[in-house]
Write a structure and sequence with these properties.
Neuraminidase; about 450 residues
């Protein structure tokens, strides 16, 4: 029986005999897996267990093929994959009887402990990334900071933030024209740049960027010119609200449908708003703050797509023009801005259920007209104007700890930029920081990861 099995295996792996399993065969294997029959391995992920067949795993994964065809043996038929917490490694792996008594395991454990010690003592910014064990993984999502106002004029600069490495990468397309006070949105594989200002013209034009092909195209223009525009995405539509057309502050709003390449006007807002900011939560559009031509606003309203109506909600605790608004967790966050006298460090969170605002801890730096987004379950604020100069400072807020943390600065001082997050890029490595080039950091990077910030979630 053993000889027959070996011969059959040899014949199966001959190139001219290779063939794909039929749909019926796949269906049978899946039925057996679901019934728990003939399964010889268990995969455990986040507390959930999945019965599986080694042969099937080997056929679709080089990792499992190497694992199961090596000298590995486990009477419990279980494999634990990577991405473990340090505490788990110390308590469960390092102290395991089989591991600590194995001469083969000892150098592996020692290397892992050295890497963990390096990260703990030096922080992610200064760790030895020539060691593969301490190199951050490629990020799933990239944060883009696009355009803005820098050095007294608009800029075409684009930087990509790699949250896993805490690094910015310059990905500027020099052929593109400068633009500031615009909106940015990601939808169905494309980044859209909406409205804005180039120090001469107020734009109603919209550009679309393909981050895979790295190409730009014009799409249908908006009905109105909109500088200081508020932009958000909901249900495959891009919403553009308020702004300034060069003459008046606008209360009009419109939405874009990529399939038809058309903008459609929706119900106007209750207030004229430029320098406001918008987001979506629970299927509704929220817009907060701004400037109506006379005063900075603390009002906010919500748009119901089904009824095509705007409803005024509870006002914020502070007037905020040049504000950043973003949905994070179960709340709408309103961050920073200008109250008519000062640039603000303060921030607050709105509960749609209670229709109330509550204050959260203040940022390290005051800022207005900055970028804001959520990446890896952290709220990032990027650049802006601090009351004296444009800034390149970046920080992030973690709602679980209710704290702000420093993040790596951009390369370019700028305000009036716009940010958006692009997930699942096939070519993410082209926008991520190099994993073999993390040495020679400036002194300011060493300060970032002090005791108060060394726990930055990554």
């Amino acid at each position: 029986m053993e000889m027959e099995s070996t011969a059959a295996s040899t014949r199966f792996h001959q190139p001219h005999m290779e063939r794909k399993m039929s749909a019926m065969t796949c269906e049978i294997f899946n039925e057996l897996r679901l019934e728990g029959k003939l399964c010889d391995v268990v995969i455990k992920v986040n507390g959930f267990e999945f019965n599986a067949h080694k042969n099937i795993l080997c056929s679709c994964s080089s990792y499992f093929r190497a694992l199961f065809t090596s000298g590995w043996n486990n009477t419990e038929k279980k494999v634990r994959l990577a991405l473990m917490h340090a505490e788990y490694f110390m308590n469960n792996v390092k102290m395991n009887d089989y591991v600590k008594d194995s001469e083969e395991c000892k150098p592996v454990i020692i290397n892992a402990l050295k890497a963990m010690y390096d990260l703990n003592m030096n922080g992610p910014s200064n760790s030895d990334f020539t060691n593969p064990l301490t190199r951050p993984r490629l990020p799933y999502a990239i944060l883009f900071a696009i355009g803005g106002w820098s050095g007294g004029s608009p800029t075409n600069a684009i930087e990509a933030y790699d949250a896993r490495a805490d690094r910015w990468v310059n990905v500027t397309c020099e052929e593109e024209s400068p633009r500031a006070y615009h909106g940015a949105a990601y939808l169905k594989g494309y980044v859209y740049i909406i409205g804005g200002f180039d120090s001469v013209d107020y734009f109603n034009s919209v550009k679309r960027f393909d981050p895979v092909k790295k190409t730009w195209h014009q799409v249908a223009p908006m009905h109105s010119r909109r500088c200081y525009v508020s932009v958000t995405v909901l249900s495959n539509f891009i919403y553009a609200m308020g702004g300034f057309d060069g003459y008046v502050r606008l209360n009009t709003a419109e939405r874009y449908e990529p399939e038809t390449n058309q903008w459609t006007l929706i119900a106007p807002m209750h207030e004229q708003r430029s320098d406001a900011s918008a987001t979506t939560l629970y299927g509704k559009v929220y817009i907060c703050g701004g400037f109506n031509g006379n005063e900075c606003l603390f009002t906010a309203e919500v748009y119901n797509t089904e009824s095509n109506q705007w409803t005024v909600i509870a006002p914020m605790r502070s007037r905020r023009s040049g504000i950043g608004v973003i949905a994070y967790g179960e709340h709408v966050y309103a961050v920073g801005g200008f109250d008519g006298a000062n640039r603000l460090r303060s921030a607050e969170a709105y509960s749609p259920v209670a229709n109330t605002w509550r204050t959260i801890p203040t940022m390290f730096n005051p800022r207005s007209n900055f970028g804001i987004e959520v990446v890896d379950d952290l709220l990032f604020v990027v650049g802006g104007f601090n009351g004296f100069t444009t800034t390149f400072n970046v920080e992030c807020y973690d709602e679980k700890t209710d704290e702000w943390y420093d993040a790596h600065d951009m390369s370019i001082y700028r305000s009036a930029l716009s940010c958006c997050v692009v997930p699942g890029l096939a070519n993410v490595g082209e926008y991520a920081a190099r994993r073999d080039n993390f040495t020679g950091l400036a002194l300011r990077d060493e300060v970032k990861y002090s005791a108060s910030t060394s726990t930055l979630p990554v």
